[in-house]
Amino acid sequence: MRGLRAITASLGLCLLAGCGSGGAGSQHASAAGGSAQAGANTVTVFAAASLQETFSTLAARYEAAHPNTTVKLNFGASSALALQINAGAPADVFASASVKNMTQVTSGGSATNPVTFARNDMEIAVPPSNPARITAVRDLVKPGVKVTLCQAQVPCGATAVAVFSHAGVSVKPVTLEADVKSTLTKVELNEVDAGVVYRTDVRAAGAKVKGIEIPASLNASTDYPIAALTKAKNPDGAKSFLAFVQSAQGKSVLEAAGFQQP
Question: Pfam families of this UniProt entry (predicted)?
Answer without folding.
Answer: SBP_bac_11
